[in-house]
UniProtKB/TrEMBL annotation:
This is ABC transporter substrate-binding protein. Keywords: Cell membrane, Lipoprotein, Membrane, Palmitate, Signal. Gene3D superfamilies: Periplasmic binding protein-like II. InterPro entries: Bact_solute-bd_prot1, SBP. Pfam families: SBP_bac_8. It comes from Cohnella abietis.
Length: 450
């Protein structure tokens, strides 16, 4: 026998449980149905049986729209609610600019999936998105993710996303065949690259054609660790990137890797879509990426191959560079001026239920930002290196740098890497872009420099 159970206005089919289970579910419904926000965000608890199904629109990076975590969440919601989610996929290299522009002119979807941090300021959340402070699921968030979801003390999004560890993915079979050991320093890393090159294997795949996969954010973590007050000084116009020697070290690292041939012979034409095949072919030994990629992308196309890869630190920066990067959290924001505000909030509340979250994350090789989730599986690569990851993980700082753009910064790094401009010129261009964003936001310190 099966019983219909209501979850915040959404009809969900589930097996009949004992009275205690039913009581707990009822209590959960009551808890999640209560909210102290403004009228537009209150949940009325209307049932969908007699309601006309609606189509909610969701805008996101095109690469994110096919991620297992999002596709599973949408499938569950559509099956349980009778509503539909229409995806609007934006190009990876221009997604930040496009979302900011569409927000500025008021042409955004019911739901937006985007990174937080200082990027929230570009979206003017108080004017455009529902304040989710006080939602029942807020207490389920881990402490590490909370600052990334907030602006001016208000919470704006649900971080239904992967929590990965970034480092250097390397082919263990190739290393074993050539008698190579995981490097302990940047010097040893360069030596490994040279041995791989001499063996006819491109040391590292770099999707340079797409710009953003240069991922200079990893180098900025190195810079921040060695420059006290780095982010705050940049954001208050007390410091320029060009003033920091460690930033030059980061750009020079790319130039060194490129000129020595460690990115292979065709890195300027390599794109992100070609990474899975490149790793599977054995033509490339390493890539800067995150552990979850091995399972969400590589394993998905070539089952059984993820276990061939390990996770070593990143060596981007000066001679002492050696680090892993902690996770970045994407979050779902609700357009407060949309046609389906109530339904969009119900969508978020549905996904935020512990039983739904656990079903979404079930068996996925990833971390999570929710205390209640226990069904996920950390990747074997993470578990194998947990001791070193705990010691060497730096928080991702670029989401908190005003004016930092993965694409724009990557563009100047690429030009310096290939010799089109000097390292100094590249960094000055980064500063110019960063300061213009700050001026556009009206940050006083940039209008009235010290």
């Amino acid at each position: 026998m099966r019983q219909a159970v209501r979850h915040k206005g959404i009809k969900k089919r589930m097996p009949l449980r004992a009275c205690v289970g039913a009581f707990l579910i009822t209590a959960m419904v009551s808890l999640f149905g209560c909210n102290e926000n403004e009228d537009a965000t209150r949940f009325a608890g209307d049932k969908l049986d007699n309601a006309q199904p609606v189509t909610l629109t969701l805008m996101a990076n095109q690469d994110w729209t096919v991620r297992p975590i999002l596709t599973k969440a949408i499938e569950m919601y559509e099956n349980d609610s009778g509503n539909r989610i229409e995806l609007q996929a934006l190009p990876i290299d221009t997604v930040d600019t496009l979302i900011s522009r569409r927000v500025a002119i008021g042409e955004i979807t019911d739901i937006v999936l985007h990174f937080g941090g200082t990027a929230l300021s570009d979206l003017r959340p108080a004017r455009n998105f529902v304040d989710m402070s006080g939602e029942a699921w807020e207490s389920d968030l881990t402490d590490e993710v909370r600052p990334r979801l907030m602006k001016d003390g208000k919470l704006y999004g649900l971080p239904l996303w992967e929590a990965s560890t970034s480092g250097t993915l390397y082919n263990k079979r190739i290393f074993e065949k050539l008698g190579l050991h995981v490097p302990e320093s940047q010097e040893e890393f360069f030596a490994v690259c040279e041995k791989l090159k001499q063996a006819g294997i491109a040391p590292m795949y770099l999707a340079s054609k797409d710009i953003w996969p240069l991922l200079p954010q990893f180098g900025f973590d190195y810079v921040a660790e060695r420059t006290p007050g780095f982010v705050n000084a940049l954001n208050t116009n007390k410091l320029n990137l060009a003033d920091v020697p460690a930033v030059q070290d980061v750009v020079d690292w790319y130039r060194t890797m490129y000129t020595r041939g460690y990115f292979g012979n065709d890195s300027v034409n390599n794109n992100w879509d070609g990474l899975v095949d490149a790793l599977h072919s054995g033509e490339y030994a390493m890539v800067m990426s995150w552990d979850v990629y091995l399972y969400s992308d590589l394993e998905a196309k070539y089952p059984g191959t993820a276990s061939d890869f390990g996770l070593m630190p990143l060596f981007v920066g000066g001679s002492e560079a050696k680090l892993y990067e902690g996770p970045n959290a994407a979050m779902m924001l609700v357009n407060k001026n949309g046609k389906h505000v109530k339904e969009a909030i119900d969508f978020i509340r549905y996904l935020a239920q512990p039983d739904v979250l656990n079903e979404i994350y079930r068996g996925m090789n990833t971390g999570t930002y929710f205390k209640s989730v226990t069904t996920n599986k950390p990747t074997p690569q993470y578990l194998e290196n947990k001791k070193f990851i705990d010691e060497l993980t730096y928080p991702s700082v670029t989401p908190f740098i005003v004016g930092y753009s993965q694409y724009e910064m990557g563009k100047w790094v690429q030009q310096a890497m290939t010799g089109a401009i000097t390292t100094r010129e590249a960094i000055l261009k980064m500063d110019e872009f960063r300061k213009q964003v700050a001026l556009d936001r009206g940050i006083p310190e940039f209008h009235h420099p010290h």
